[in-house]
Amino acid sequence: MSKARSGVYAAAITPVAVDGTPDIPKLITYCKRLIQEGLDGVAPAGTTGEGNSLPTKSRLAMPGEFAKAGLDPDRVIFGTGSCATDDAVDLTRACLEAGYNSVLVLPPFYLKNVPDDGLFAYYARLIEQVGSAKLRIYLYHFPQMSMTPISIPLIQRLKTEFGPVIAGLKDSSGDYAGSLAFAEAADDFDVFPSNEGVLRDCLQKGCAGVISATTNASASLARATLEANGEHGDELQASLAAVRQTIAKFPLSAALKQIEAWKSGDESWCRTFAPLTPLNAQQKEDLYAELAALKPQAGDLVASREAA
Fold it and tell me: pLDDT per residue over 289-305, tens digit each?
């Protein structure tokens, strides 16, 4: 595959080892399970995976370990963005060297209100320094966090200059109309909104799929929604949206880790990387109660806690 396949991805959460470092073998096992449960792929080391809180050495090692474990290159999009352009180059090269050519690249996010010329220079240097026609970059539009939006003129300029290397965009803005506008910005440009609540509609309107945080918890339901037709499909879509809306009321990475701890019976999943913190006792109870109220949509999540 020349680029990542279309469909439903999870922005994978990152397990924390006892020593406070990323537990890459555990992450690999987890990502394999998400795919087995029905997701088309995973996006490690992104926002939900606390990517910008991970040690650089771990981020550099991750693609090679994924390759050794046999995860298909067209099912993985690694986050490689960095404020320093040449750090993004090193992270992206590590992906290419391991056989993963699809990367999700935040703009340099520390300096605010930079012009499109500056962002173009960042992506241009990344592409030129990596120096591989196999590279496929997915721009990462998340203005609430990065304060550095990706504009349609920037997309078109990059696409004109670098062609298929600019493969698409993840839109975490929450502006669905904006996602659809991005999808129309250029040919051969795959747009992934971050909200599986619009999964069926966005596919019908030209998007490639979704890359979402909350599909960590709803992989099987997302697959069923993707494959269903007619009224049943609409019902599943509503259920998928309800699960997302419920989890999104809580600190997202911590909530998803708590759900995985319940699901797996492994409380070590609750660990986070500073500055994030696990859910407190009240948040845990509230999350459990709200998920329980969604039965049967979230029945597998709460049943695992009841059995524990």
Answer: 999 998 655 555 654 55
pTM over 0.70: yes
Question: For 76, which DSSP code?
Answer: B
Element containing residue 117 per DSSP (H, E): helix 116-130
Q: Which residues of 8-35 are buried (b: 16+ CB within 10 A; e: fewer)?
A: bbbbbbbbbeeeeebbbebbbebbbebb
What are the chain's domains? 7-227 (3.20.20.70)
Q: Kindly report, residue by residue over 241-286, the tens digit of the pLDDT.
A: 999 999 999 999 999 999 999 999 999 999 999 999 999 999 999 9
**Distance from C-alpha of 221 to C-alpha of 260, rounded to nearest angstrom:** 16
User: Which residues, other chains included, contact 113 with Cβ-Cβ below 8 Å and sequence gap of 6+?
Assistant: none
Number of H helices, E strands in the chain: 13, 8
How many whole angstroms separate alpha carbon 54 and alpha carbon 107?
17
Contact call for residues 267 and 279 (beta carbons, < 8 A): no
Task: Detail the DSSP E strand segments found in the chain.
Answer: 7-10, 41-42, 78-79, 102-105, 136-141, 166-171, 190-193, 209-212
Tell me the two tokens of residue 105: 């690249």
Euclidean distance between CA atoms 159 and 153, whole angstroms: 10
Distance (Å, rounded) from C-alpha 15 to C-alpha 29? 11
**For residue 206, what are its two tokens?**
């030209």
